[in-house]
Amino acid sequence: MESLIQEFIEYLGHEKGLATNTLESYGRDLRQYCGFLSEDTSQTPETASQATIVAYLMMLRKQGKATATIARRLAALKAFYQFMLKENYVTKDPTDDLSSPKLERKLPRVLTVDEVEKLLNQPDTSTPAGIRDKAMLEVLYATGIRVSELVSLNLDDIELDEGFVRCIGKGSKERVVPMGEIAINALRSYLSKGRPKLVSNPGENALFLNHHGRRLTRQGFWKIVKKYAAQLGIRKEITPHTLRHSFATHLLENGADIRAVQEMLGHADISTTQIYTHVTKDRLKDVYARSHPRA
Asked: Which residues contact 255 (CB under 8 A, 6 or more apart)?
């Protein structure tokens, strides 16, 4: 079973160009499914029926798994069986008639413009690490790129004179996102005063470095954001993704075209971007309820 899963993962990587994190997630999900087959049904992926898969999904629900988790597991199984059908490992796809459970779309948490301003001013820019942190936060809010895209940036991915950043998103798709003057200035400061004091290997191409002089990780940046959020004392939960959500919401609130926001965020489907229009509507209702004498 492991060799079959590995063959599928390689197929997704080469043929579909899926991101590494997605491939790892599919692998984990399929190994758990195969574990269920061998322990509970003594079947293999090739012999499993639709009833077996339904039993697996019901087991996940009884375990208290979230609807989003179950939907993701089913999506992995559907892709897996489509691959096996294509490669003639099975003659029928047992997931063919199974529909994904309906997901509740949770509205993302966003900060107000004032809260963002306070967060971005938290780093101590008298230290190399503080200058780096300031630049990272400014770039994240200025561009709305994902945290994984931020920490993957190399020196040649930024064009300060032109005012844009080039990043590789999901599915290895490249996009170019504009930056404002404040983020550009923060990057200039980091490149002249912060990065030279952090770098240990002159050949290092990573833009943002940790105290060892190597590329900063997602986990490392998560800790940085948590630290500044705690300093700020805001009761809202603040994650690295909060600035991405705030970026999109503030753009739409100020009249930006949703297609342009979709392109900057790197969303393949505009329905993903449209969730931010719900956020802005909710905030408008809140303003109305607090401000109108007959609300």
From this structure: none
Count: domains in the chain: 2
User: Could you tell me the residue range of the domain that residue 45 belongs to?
Assistant: 2-86
Our answer to whether residue 170 is catalytic in this structure is yes
**241 noted as active-site residue:** yes
102 occurs within a structural domain: no
pTM score of the predicted model: 0.62
Q: Is the pLDDT of residue 170 over 60?
A: yes
Which one is catalytic: 134, 146, 195, 250? 146
pLDDT band at 291 (very low <50, low <70, confident <90, very high): low
Are residues 8 and 117 both part of a single domain?
A: no
Same domain? For 22 and 165 the reply is no
Tell whether 134 and 81 lie within a shared domain: no
Catalytic, out of 78, 166, 170, 193 = 170
Active site residue 175: no
Q: What is the pLDDT of residues 102-140, one digit of tens each?
A: 655 666 778 888 999 999 999 999 999 999 999 999 999
CA dist 150 and 220 (Å) reads 12
Is 166 marked active-site? no
